[in-house]
Amino acid sequence: MNDLLTQIEHARSTIAAHTSIVPRIAIILGSGLSALADDLDDPVVIPYAAIPGFLPTTVIGHPGELVIGMLEGQPVAVMRGRFHFYEGHSMQQVTFPVRVLHTLGCTTLLATNAAGGLHADWHIGDLMLITDHIFLPGLAGHHPLRGPNDERLGPRFPAMVGAYDRELLALARGAADRLGILLREGVYLMLSGPAFESGAELRMCRLLGADVVGMSTVSEVVVARHMGMRCMGLSLITNLALPDGPPANHLEVLDAGEAARPKIAALIRSVLAHIDRAATTPTSPDRP
Ligand code: HPA
Questions:
Q1: Which of 69, 140, 191, 194 is 20 to 30 A from 91, comparing alpha carbons?
Q2: Ligand 1 center to 222 CA (angstroms)
């Protein structure tokens, strides 16, 4: 009765009762980036508190609403705010909304986040297209797919090579070109947080091959890939995370999000405007 599929269905039917739109693209808006949800046509706003299994958000800059509507002619479900492992939730709780949005009809996930840039010559406000990830909490055992696997959701051992969809990456590059936006590319390393990293930890992240660090997104992408969703990830560099640089703080993260809002909004809108039906068709999670 209380198995994961039942919980997902409970949340799905609650959301579906609010709107006749069947969203195809799920968009998760990270710290300071939630304003994009204001741009939707025919929006229906559902507070997380009204959706069973969705948690209250506790972080400033993460409002806690699901907005369903149309953006660039695409039916989208936009999460204004996400759940974080560092808030004390399990990885399964953190990723529950992705399960629900997939069941609702979403076959594509566009995840955005605030991240610390690990390169001294990058700048606050730069955007980075995520080409790959390192899931440090997952590798250490905090993995959302740990435990019994329900084959109706996805395979026991989903592949994560090629997790970031090649066609979506090409669309994002094309959109950046058209808009004249500098779009960096690289590897996002997820840490559990909530403390920002020490200097030695930042040096370790560089040695591991990461370009940015953050506290979200990867767990969501792993679960999305488990279900065969196509994924794209976009990081806003809100601070430079350098071993010898000034310490990061949450307010600068939010300020950078506000300043970069038009750039991110334009990029996401352009990707949506050019996404075709093929890009919203699910792919096999074990054959990326
Ligand atoms: N570290 C981890 N997470 C972050 C950072 C950072 O420097 N900036 C934004 N999210």
A1: 69
A2: 20
The two three-digit tokens of residue 11, written as one number: 């949340």
35-89 pLDDT, tens per residue?
Answer: 788 888 889 999 999 999 998 777 665 578 999 999 999 999 999 989 999 999 9
What pLDDT, on a 0 to 100 scale, did the predictor assign at position 63? 73
Q: Which residues, at least 6 apart from 6, have a Cβ–Cβ distance to it below 8 Å?
A: none
- Going 33 to 107 to 149 to 130, the CA torsion angle's sign is negative
Please tell me which residue in 91, 160, 175, 215 is annotated as part of the active site: 215
235 is catalytic: no
The residues, ordered by sequence, that sit 6+ positions from 271 with a Cβ below 8 Å of its Cβ are 110, 168, 171, 172, 175, 232
**pLDDT reading at 277 higher than 60:** no
State the amino acid at position 184 in one-letter form. R
Q: Evaluate whether 113 touches 253 at the Cβ level (below 8 Å).
A: no
Q: What does pLDDT average to over the chain?
A: 90
Question: Token pair for residue 78?
Answer: 């936009």
Catalytic residue, from 216, 219, 235, 270: name it.
Answer: 216
Distance from residue 64's CA to the centre of ligand 1 (Å): 20
Q: Is residue 270 helix, strand or coil?
A: helix
Nearest CA to ligand 1 atom 5: 116
Distances (CA, A) of 161 to 104, 164, 225, 234, 288: 26, 8, 10, 18, 7
Q: pTM for this one?
A: 0.92
Whole-number Å distance, alpha carbon 190 to ligand 1 midpoint, is 9
Torsional sign, CA 177, 168, 32, 119: negative
Residue 81 alpha carbon to ligand 1 centre in Å: 16
Q: What is the reported pLDDT for 288? A: 42
Task: Using the predicted structure, report yes or no on whether residue 282 has a pLDDT greater than 70.
Answer: no
